[in-house]
Design brief:
2-enoyl-CoA Hydratase, Chain A, domain 1; alpha+beta; seven-stranded mixed beta sheet; 24 strands; globular
Amino acid sequence: MFWWPLLVALLGVSAIPVPQSSSTTEPTSTACAQISRAVRSLLTSNPFVTPTFTASLAFDCLSSVPNRPQPAVKLVQSLKAFTQWQSTLTFLKAPPQSYMLPPIDIQGNLDNISATASAGEFSGEYDFQASILRTFLAAHDGHFLFIPDVFKVFTFSNPLLEDVVSVSSNGTSLPKLYHYSTFQASMSTTPVAIAKINGQDATSFLAGLGSVFGLAQDVDAQWNMMFSIYSNPSGGNPLSFFPLFLGPSLTLTYENGSTQTQQTVATLNPGVDFSNIASGDDFYDAFCNPGATTGTPTASSADLVPTKPGLKRRLPALTDYPPPVVQNSDEGTTMGFFVDGSGFEDVAVLAISAFAEETDPLYLFKFQEAVQSFLSQSRAAKKQRLVIDLTSNGGGIIIAGFELFAQLFPDIDPFNANNMRLTESLANISQILAAQPIQDQNAEVAVSGLLSNLSPLDLSDPQGDKFNTTDEILTPVTLQGDQFTAYIRQPAVAGFNLTGTGNRSNPPPALFKPENVVLLTDGTCGSTCTIFSYLMIFQANVTTISVGGRPQVGPMQSVGGVEGSQVLQFSEISNVSASAINLVSDQVQSEKLLSGELGVLAEGYAIQRSANPVTSPGSINFRNAFAPSDSKTPLQFLYEPANCRFFYTPQMINTPELVWKYAVGATWTDAAHFCVQGSRVQANTTRGLDPAFRAKNNGAEGNDGSTQTEGSEDNNEKPKSSAERGLKRGTTKGLWLPAIALATLLLF
């Protein structure tokens, strides 16, 4: 099971009315027992069958599970400790005008949930846990997620919208919703658009699902995430596959007045033992009790929730792509092409659907080789223009984004600035680490993506100046009334030579001029994809084009996924917290830490209450990323429109070469003809370097982002060169991080 259908399925909880029972009566108390009997009967006759039953019956069972106040309050307390590490809390609570979505007070919501549970006012455990899930999803952050344990039992599915696509007749006219199957060549009838879903306007209905609970922070990206395209054949429509009950059936009304209805069914998830669940209390004891063994999903249920939801695979086979000149693996997350046809003789395409592959520990090295080979072959073939296809790219290994930029533009030093929310527990861990012998610090940093960001051993500021002490890292930067660490520069990785360093210190010159490169995205670009994209946009001034989005005219963002620069799993926070406490020899201090936030993290009760504690225990965005011109606002909250936008046509959905050719036309042939009305935006090439990011010897006054002056002369001057900023490629030492620990750098 793919991660995206599951996650997108969670997005629509409150976008449409959520039924509280299958009828006008109260949920039957025997629903769980009915399912249990059906499961036993089915598995007795055929142990390999997947038990399936009506969606309403499964929802009635879930609704009968009681909410127990004491563990509920404990779960929220644990979640509050973990969410303190979410870097965007204060910005989510009071976002800038550039942010397109409503504010959300994460900690305040959790407090309200705790109070409601303590008072016994939730109708049941499902209601309680759905409130938690909605709180996390309202952050619209692919790095910020917690799926509670009540959701590990059932999956609801309805195939009626499985093949729905949003397509335009010509790329610029407003798209409509269709079944993709109706465009097949064998069909003799004219395709008819979908007008309504469950009696509501179809476009508004789907946009509501995405814009209220979409993982992306851009509403057009949320729209695109619901549909299948060539780079993401699995799609992610929340109404076709979801763990939440959104109704007993779906009804579509078409523009010709005809209707079609499909019943929703519930399926027992793999590895779940439901044979002895006779009541809601039994359900709670089996699935919402960390100490339970009865009913607990087995190892085969690891697919219930995602492990690394940024890794977009091109599955099934790569049959829709033309023959590549370069391909990094059978999975084909990186492929290079030469476009055929008159007028495209000098066009090359680099298609990257992810910056990682879960199954290949040597991915980073193969990626480096694939890009190098592609550029070498492009040079030999005298290619002059480059389309970089990033559609469906949700991220991957951080350093891969820097590697791609380094090969494309080896003479440009990659600016980057990040910081972390300065929580009490983060400061405690930093100080405990700093008190250890250097040899021990090196050993700890070598195996922890968390600690590598807290140790001054091999960490630098954005100018490349090395930190000397932990106190320098912890010197507060105040942003919007909240405190953060100093700005830090993305470290290198030991064991891997980034192009421009080590034995790769003399790379070939840039093949493609910035004005001859275009980034093609569908807005879903997130995490490492955003890191690479902003290097290209802010430092190389390349053109960006977006495809798809809501059926309306006007611009669309090229980068709409999570724009934080590192994800951190609850499990790593918990493990490091426990280790830190164990390192404290003073008993009084140790007991104090145990009774505080660090102790709550070390216990990790929320991890035990996760739907999948092993592979998806919960996660936070650990680090904010910043644009060179703005030290005050994380990239997650800035609006950066693409330079042009067009819509998919029916033929483009499974024919990427048509998308690439259209992008070429929109970029270099006739933008007025190929771009959607009102979507053409001129590139902003006048942004200067924020004073907070300047080298100390250039007169910067400390690291506080508040030193920037609004409307100052500095904001209008051209960025200084790498030498002027005191930054030189290869001067920053790498982390003490072996190649086998690269997984700690995976982003969602």
